Amino acid sequence: MNLDQFQNEMLDGQSIQTSRSFVANVFSYMTVALFVSAGFAWYSADAGWAEQIFLNGGILRYVVMFAPLVAVLIMSFAFNKLSFTALMAIFFGYSAIMGISISYIFLIYNLGAIGKVFMITAVVFGVMATLGYTTKTDLSKMGSILVMALVGVIISSLINMFMQSSAFDYIISGISVLIFTGLTAYDMQKIKRIGAGVEYGTAEAGKLAIMGALSLYLDFINLFLLLLRFFGRSND
Q1: Can you say whether the dihedral through the CA atoms of 223, 229, 230, 236 is positive or negative?
Q2: What element of type H or E holds 135?
Q3: Are the C-beta atoms of residues 90 and 82 closer than 8 Å to each other?
Q4: Which of 20, 56, 86, 105 is the most buried (most CB within 10 A)?
């Protein structure tokens, strides 16, 4: 083995280790965010906030529903201006607000159904994340198609707000499950590649890890809510 080959192998080894550490941080942030959301969702329902917001809240309901979107936009467009601490604070604040915004599920589904669907979601998410991390196939083209399909689903959902078709709604939900299942693998591969190219331990790496956690968090939450529609058991 000559010196160049040795140096290349050393760089490859460092890149793999950096990527693993980066991915571990991403999952740590995502896991904490999920616990924060779960805690706020449960407390909101238990304290009666969910009923007040979604049954009697009026404009407050829309504030709670759209506040998470505002937080995501701030994180995305102000990424370069925000410090690591500020970005992390917004992310966990977002996960708390998101928890409140999905607390309505406790008004619709029983606790056993919610727990069962959460476990199903965790298994599906874990399998697809593992596939995205280990596959040698480039998922970039698939990711582009899935993003375009997601835009189509959003437009279809807006149209269905006026049509009020329950059958069309279930079709949209079924397609959305497939989209977010695929996006989990795509996002995981993208995060792995980002991790291989960052300087571990820097503020920039930390900020990118939070944005990666946000992507996976959104995949998980959306997949969970969609599967809950199909497998959840109503309180009625």
Answers
A1: positive
A2: none
A3: yes
A4: 105
**pLDDT, tens digit, for every residue of 104-113?**
999 999 899 9
Which of 129, 147, 142, 135 shows the shortest CA–CA distance to 184?
A: 129
Alpha-carbon gap, residue 104 to 231, rounded angstroms: 16
Bridge partners (DSSP) listed for residue 109:
234
Q: Which of 37, 32, 31 is nearest to 103 (CA)?
A: 37
Q: How far apart are the first and last CA of the chain?
A: 70
H-run or E-run covering 57: none
CB 173 within 8 A of CB 230: yes
The number of C-alpha atoms within 13 Å of 97 and in the hemisphere containing its C-beta is 19
* Low-confidence winner among 8-12, 127-131, 169-173, 183-187 (lowest mean pLDDT): 8-12
Determine the residue type at 45. A
Rg of the Cα atoms in the chain: 20
What H or E segment, with its residue span, contains residue 198? none
Measure Cα distances from 39 to 71, 80, 98 in Å: 19, 30, 11
* CA 187 – CA 201 distance, rounded (Å): 21
Q: Cα separations (Å) of 146 from 11, 69, 74, 187? A: 33, 20, 24, 11
- Rounded CA-CA distance 8/186 in Å is 27
